[in-house]
Every structure is written in structure tokens, then in C-alpha cells.
């Protein structure tokens, strides 16, 4: 930065020629830099997973076409992260007239103050350099946003201090959109913006200029507009007015992870699991899969409102809570290691219930009961992936012969393991989980508990809060087919 030109005269004599700066729009700059990244094979959006073959190619097409675009997707689909990642396609810095509120181009200023300054100072006009991270402006759309917030308005205080008439262009107070000049302006949740504010975006998206209330001026801004919205708001409630939709160049739909593996990579990246602890911390792979599977099951459950969606924040928050539960247990029981168990997933229910909205049937059951059922289903599905074909009959038989086992919530791993060793055959299949009986008590007890929970999820054994794990040996009679005779003479009916 110290070697960059400091005045307009130095700028003219440098590589930052008028042709490179004045005649290269923001959208053209994004296009050229994106093409360079594609040629080098660079990662386009670091930290965004699962979109390589679906969403990202469409975003690339929109940028190469120099389109304003909108991302449509349910909550928690990385829409805001993608918009903020667009600054990675911009130059490291660009020259601006020093002190200008709207980052005026030194070669082609659009505000009157900068034009007068150039006329007075000429090549001595001081130049500042705007870094790429300062070229992105974002606004969360809310119903109380005004046209003055977005575009600008008359500033009576500025007029009074400078002794100018209110009609003077120099008394303009610029809104967020002019202040995003020579950069990217992102609007989150576009449907929440009132209709009259959306009308104020017409000119900038079509003609490239804005008109500020009370001033007979038209300012030709250089800006890329990008939006996010929920597809239900966009299509069903119709809060984005039709002329604005018509002016948006590309409409790109995002989605949730297609596979559990994709979801796990996102959750692992975003969750806070690397904690400063004197104890060893481990999160077994099957626990991570169960947590991710809960989100997948919730997205498919008919009792959960699909229009609202189940955010990726659910497994992220749940995984953090699972580890906290294991951490608390290890500290209380003075275990040497912190290893998560299935019981910790149930302890993390408070981090799930606020992450999904229920339909009427779900409301009758209650969010906590729904969460418990989702966990049980997720455990069952994960168990099947590991233990299909495994012989669990000795374990089931132990319970059928009258065995019962209740694991205390805050018992140490060694205490839990001592109880689990009573069950014959329970440790015969630990190698499937890459666990052996030689591992420490925390790891072995976690794996063994997963097996018991899997058997319960598949209704091979029972479990209750009072008794723990057990087998119900009572044989319930199968329901009789109403078409078969009951063995009794039917009661005679009289007319």
C-alpha cells in the first residue's frame, strides 16, 4: 500500500490507467477475476460444501453474464456466506478520491463535491485505496427500512452547517446503496422489504442510476446487487413485486446437503468441538452420524413443517451440546477422557426443539417428544449401517432370560463398563466400530451403549426411564382378523 500512488497525477502515470479504472465496471471486474480463478483451478467459495455440481455453476454463470442475482433457499443453506464470499472475486484494492462518502472513481466522479474538488486541485487531488473487504455492503431487509436508508435524503443539518439551500446537491445524505458504489450491495430476506422500497431499486437495476428525493440529479452508480429470499415468501406470498423480479438477471436455488457425509463436513467445519481441555476429547464417528441423521430425518418427517425447513444449524448446535454433556459427565465423574455417548444426544434435545416448526400433528405430540423419536430413528438407521448381518442374538437372549440394565446418567466410564460386561456377547462386534476391548473404558462403554440403543431402536429390546434396558417377555396376542369367525354364535337381532 505504501508504494501505491497518493495523488491523481501519480495515478495517471502508474499502471492504474484511466482505461483500466474508469472503463472497467464492478461486474466486469468480477467477471475477469473469476475467469482467472477458473483457469487456475482455485477454490471459488471456501467453506461452502455440497454445491459444487448444483449451485456454484449457476452462480458462476450469473457472474460471467454480469447479472444481478438472487439466492432462493430455506434457512441455513449458506446464502449469506456465499454473498459475502463474492468479494474474493474483486481486486485487492481500487483507487478512490480521498474522503468521498461514495468512493468516487478518480477518473469519473459522480458526486458534485468530488467534481468541484478535481476542478480545483487537478492532479494534486489526494487518492485513497479501498480494500476488497470494504467493498461489500449488506442490509437485512425489515419492514421499517425507509427509502432514505436505502437511497438517501435531504440533510437539513448539513445544509445549516454549510449555509446552503436544501435544494443544493451538496446537502444530500447518502443511503446504503450509494455508499456501496464500486462494490457489491447485498440485501438479505428481500421479501420483507416493503413494496415502495423495492420500487426504489428499479432504476439502479435497469438504467444503473438512482434518483434521490428532492434533487434533480441522477447518479450513475457502479454496483452489483445480490439478494437472498425464502422460496416460500418469493413464490407463495408474492412479496417480491413482479417488476423487480423481472429485473433480477438470475434466480438460483440453494438446497440442504444431499448426503449425510456432506452434512457432516459442514457440521464439523462450523461446530465448536476443539476445546481447550486437559482431558482427551473424542467424538466417535457414529455419534457424528447420528447427530447429522437427526436433521435428515426431521426434514423428511411429516410432522415437521417443510416450508420452514430444518436449518443446518440444528446438527451444528446439537453436536456442540452433545460434547458439552460428555464434558460435564467426565468432569463430575472424574473420568480421564471426554467421550460422547448416545445418552448425550438425548441430553442435547434443548438444542433441537427450537430449530424446527411443527405441523398440527406434531404440535399434539410436542417438540420434545418429536425430537426423541427423531433421535431413536437416527440411531436405528446409523446402527443398521454398521451392524447389518451382525449376530446380536446372544445379547437379546441375555435380556430375554430376565436380564435388566440401567446405566446411571453421571456414572464414570469404568462403572458403566463394569455394568455392561454383565451382558454376554455385547463386546463381540466392537471391531465394526474400530473399537476393541483393549481401548479405554470411555470408548468401549460408548460403543456398547450405541449397540444397546440400536437394538432398542429396532425394537429388539425395550428401554424405559425406570428400568433401563430390558426385554418384555410378555406375549401380546396378535389382533384377530375380523373376517375370521370368533368361535361364538353371533347375537340374534330382532326387527
Write a compact overview of the structure shown:
The chain has 495 residues and is α/β, with parallel strands linked by helices. The chain has helices at 8-12, 18-22, 26-40, 55-64, 79-85, 112-121, 147-150, 156-162, 176-179, 195-199, 202-206, 231-237, 242-247, 260-270, 285-300, 313-333, 342-347, 360-365, 367-387, 393-400, 413-420, 441-457; strands at 69-72, 93-97, 127-131, 136-140, 152-154, 172-174, 183-188, 209-211, 218-220, 223-229, 250-253, 280-282, 337-339, 462-464, 468-470. The chain has two domains: 8-253, P-loop containing nucleotide triphosphate hydrolases (Rossmann fold, 3-Layer(aba) Sandwich); 260-470.
Q: In CATH, what is the class of the largest domain?
A: Alpha Beta
The CATH superfamily of the largest domain is identified as P-loop containing nucleotide triphosphate hydrolases
Uncertain parts? 476-495
Helix content: 40-55%
Number of domains: 2
Shape: elongated
CATH topology of the largest domain: Rossmann fold
Q: Report the sheet-strand fraction.
A: 5-15%
Radius of gyration from CA coordinates: 32 Å
Termini Cα gap: 104 Å
- Spatial order of the strands in the main sheet? 4-7-10-1-11
By CATH, the architecture of the largest domain is named 3-Layer(aba) Sandwich
- Derived from helix and strand composition plus strand pairing, the structural class reads alpha/beta
Total strands = 15
**What is the residue-mean pLDDT, rounded to a whole number?**
88
Major sheet summary line: 5 strands, parallel
Number of helices: 22
Amino acid at each position: 500500500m505504501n508504494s501505491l500512488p497518493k495523488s491523481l497525477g501519480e495515478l495517471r502515470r502508474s499502471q492504474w490507467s484511466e482505461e483500466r479504472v474508469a472503463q472497467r465496471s464492478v461486474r466486469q471486474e468480477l467477471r475477469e477475476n473469476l475467469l482467472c480463478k477458473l483457469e487456475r483451478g482455485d477454490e471459488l467459495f471456501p467453506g461452502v460444501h455440497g454445491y459444487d455440481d448444483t449451485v456454484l455453476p449457476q452462480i458462476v454463470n450469473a457472474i460471467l453474464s454480469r447479472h444481478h442475482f438472487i439466492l432462493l433457499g430455506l434457512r441455513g443453506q449458506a446464502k449469506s456466506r456465499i454473498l459475502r464470499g463474492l468479494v474474493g472475486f474483486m481486486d485487492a484494492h481500487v483507487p478512490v478520491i480521498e474522503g468521498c462518502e461514495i468512493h468516487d472513481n478518480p477518473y469519473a466522479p459522480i458526486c458534485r463535491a468530488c467534481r468541484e474538488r478535481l476542478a480545483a486541485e487537478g492532479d494534486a487531488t489526494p487518492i485513497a485505496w479501498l480494500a476488497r473487504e470494504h467493498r461489500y455492503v449488506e442490509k437485512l431487509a425489515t419492514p421499517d427500512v425507509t427509502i432514505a436508508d436505502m437511497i438517501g435524503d435531504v440533510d437539513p443539518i448539513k445544509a445549516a452547517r454549510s449555509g446552503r439551500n436544501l435544494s443544493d446537491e451538496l446537502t444530500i445524505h447518502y443511503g446504503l446503496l450509494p455508499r456501496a458504489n464500486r462494490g457489491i450491495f447485498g440485501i438479505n430476506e428481500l421479501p420483507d422489504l416493503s413494496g415502495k422500497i423495492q420500487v426504489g431499486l428499479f432504476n439502479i437495476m435497469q438504467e444503473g442510476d438512482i434518483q434521490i428525493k428532492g434533487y434533480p440529479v441522477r447518479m450513475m452508480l457502479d454496483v452489483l446487487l445480490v439478494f437472498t429470499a425464502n422460496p416460500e415468501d418469493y413464490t407463495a406470498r408474492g412479496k417480491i413485486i413482479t417488476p423487480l423480479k423481472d429485473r433480477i438477471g438470475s434466480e438460483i436455488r440453494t438446497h440442504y446437503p444431499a448426503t449425510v457425509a456432506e452434512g457432516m463436513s459442514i457440521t464439523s467445519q462450523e461446530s465448536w468441538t476443539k476445546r481447550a481441555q486437559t482431558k482427551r476429547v473424542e467424538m466417535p464417528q457414529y455419534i457424528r452420524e447420528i447427530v447429522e441423521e437427526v436433521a435428515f430425518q426431521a426434514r423428511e418427517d411429516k410432522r415437521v413443517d417443510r416450508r420452514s425447513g430444518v436449518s443446518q444449524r440444528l446438527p451444528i448446535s446439537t453436536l456442540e451440546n452433545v460434547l458439552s454433556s460428555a464434558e460435564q459427565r467426565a468432569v463430575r465423574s472424574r473420568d480421564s477422557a471426554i467421550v460422547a455417548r448416545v445418552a448425550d444426544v438425548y441430553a442435547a434435545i434443548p438444542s433441537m426443539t427450537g430449530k424446527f416448526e411443527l405441523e398440527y400433528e406434531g404440535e399434539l405430540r410436542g417438540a420434545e417428544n418429536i425430537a426423541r423419536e427423531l433421535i431413536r430413528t437416527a440411531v436405528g438407521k446409523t446402527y443398521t449401517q454398521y451392524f447389518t448381518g451382525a449376530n446380536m442374538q446372544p445379547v437379546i437372549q441375555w435380556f430375554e432370560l430376565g436380564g435388566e440394565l440401567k446405566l446411571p446418567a453421571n456414572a464414570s466410564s469404568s462403572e458403566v463398563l463394569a455394568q455392561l460386561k454383565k451382558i454376554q456377547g455385547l463386546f463381540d462386534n466392537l471391531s465394526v466400530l474400530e473399537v476393541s476391548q483393549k481401548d479405554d473404558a470411555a470408548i468401549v462403554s460408548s460403543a456398547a451403549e450405541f449397540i444397546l440403543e440400536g437394538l432398542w431402536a429396532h425394537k429388539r429390546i425395550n428401554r424405559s426411564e425406570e428400568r433401563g434396558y430390558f426385554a418384555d417377555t410378555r406375549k401380546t396376542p396378535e389382533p384377530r382378523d375380523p373376517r375370521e369367525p370368533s368361535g361364538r354364535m353371533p347375537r340374534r337381532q330382532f326387527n
